[in-house]
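Minutes, project check-in
Item: structure for the 294-residue chain
Input as provided by the requester:
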Amino acid sequence: WARATGQPGWMRFGGWGATPSPVDEMMNDPLNWFVAMDFFFGVSQAASNFQSVTNVVFAQNDLPSNKSRWQRHTDGLIVMGFQCFSDWRQISGDFGGPVVVVEEKGDYEDAVSLRSNQAEGVRKGVRRLTELGHRRIGIISGSPQRHSQAERIQGYRSALAEADIEPDESIILQSPGSRLETMQVARGLLQSGGVSAVFCTSDMRALGVLDAARELGLKVPEELTVLGFDDIPAGREHEPPLSTIRHPRVELGDKAVEVIMSLLAGTPVNKEVVIETEYIERGTTGRQKEGGMR
């Protein structure tokens, strides 16, 4: 949320409601922490360019019941996260200022949709694996009910279709998202799935696959290729470094503020703004061995 007052810029973070602070919840989930902090860093960078932006506050949920409280101090609204998006839909008609909805694809009459091109980034990444000869490419994702997960699964399926590979539902799996939980799911996939490569819809899941591969004595990338999504520090620092699709979190935060300030100034903005993702090849990507599966 951005409040325009004409005073020098500064940032304040906080939360509402009876639930724990969003900061506490993010600290308990390293993936959410990196995603959120990178996004807010982008917001902070952009806010420093606009002296009128002095206050940014975020809430995990309970937007409707706290409407009178935040609406008095809000000129523009940035909605990010599944729960906040659901809450915002309940009160969207009552807010007269500019609204940017982040990473929730849709046609909003009263908001600008800001998102990254996740499906295309995954398509390019998985397509690269097929070019390296991989045919049995497993996937471990979160729930397809979540927009971001559905986009990434779509990119995976598109890449397989381009390579004339029929998806095998037995190697299309789900994991809640933690490294440990994914490691447990990956054990079964690596032992019985006959895969030469695994794409995970988050770097944290990919790290869980790498843990399982190490436990099973599989060499990466000689015997298994692993591809993640996000580009978090733990993936870059892993040995070997994790190949991934970079999620432009900082750029999304920066662009969200830019769009809000443009709308406040009366400058026309496209109803949908898309930022590209980037495939980054590192040390967990290798060629499929000749003669079939590993």
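Outcome recorded: Residues 16 and 143 are 27 Å apart (CA to CA).
No further action items on this chain.
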